Fold this sequence. Notes:
By secondary structure, the chain is an alpha/beta fold. It is built from 13 helices and 9 strands. It has a 9-stranded parallel β-sheet with strand order 3-2-1-9-8-7-6-5-4.
Amino acid sequence: MSDDPAEVQMIRREFLTTALGATAASAALPLEAQISTLATGCGTFRLRYGVTQSGSYSLFDHLNDLAQMGFDYVEPTVTGAMALSDADFAATRAKSEAGRIHVESMNVLLPGDLKVVGPDVDHSKLDPYIQQSLGRANALGAKIVVFGSGGARKVPDGFSQDQAWGQLKQFLQFMGNEIDKHNYSFVIGIEALRKQESNIINTTADAYRLAVDSNHPKINIICDFFHLASENEDPKILHTVKDRLVHLHFANECNNRSFPRDVNECPQYAPFFANLRAINYQGRISIEAGTKDFVTDAPVGLGVLHKLYANACVS
């Protein structure tokens, strides 16, 4: 996408006009008026758009570029923050604070070898890691910390699923209590992962049940479109889980978890957004996708999300 602000505004006008089916007269309206019209059609349905770490593209080194593309925030990894020395983390935090956009969510909470279920959970390593990682997430300004971490939560062969479920509840309650203890300004969002990536918590319904079972106000869920579509879960589940839904991830399930490129490339897109509109979701949606050309694919993907939102508002 061009660095020219006028051209960026023109591109945004283009997709708003197309999505709304605007007449020539309405296309001549100022961008702010078009957005106002769109917002009226959407009721209280609102989205903030972010992007996760993808490949070697450094979010913290390109915060202003990402703002220019149109993103509202970034979603780096917790494990990446934890890999930094204290000095390097301080430098990263300073970059984040100086950028035009900031960290609002974080994912990849745990490395795969730091187990939270099974007979080999080592609290002497796990608990200090969680305490430090939550502190770093708060220092960066995160509002959502996503708990996916399929490797860390993999249930060993022969180990009781019920026992693993209990361990997950205990782990989540520990994190919730740490958040309360330090008065951190974020919540945890449990992420369902497709069966190829996890052998427990594979659907949004599973994540919701675990959040309810954990019975802690800081423990909620996210919904990842890629995993929902991979598991053939009906997006109407959003109606059931809306009271615990705090975040969204998005990628093209029809093309190997890539950045979205067209509103019609995947038939599940429209029903997902229609149900978000129906529950009047208000929150963040992060593109979590793979690419070999982030600079090209990221703004295109963002434009697709804007169009899907607009289409849902006028359906």
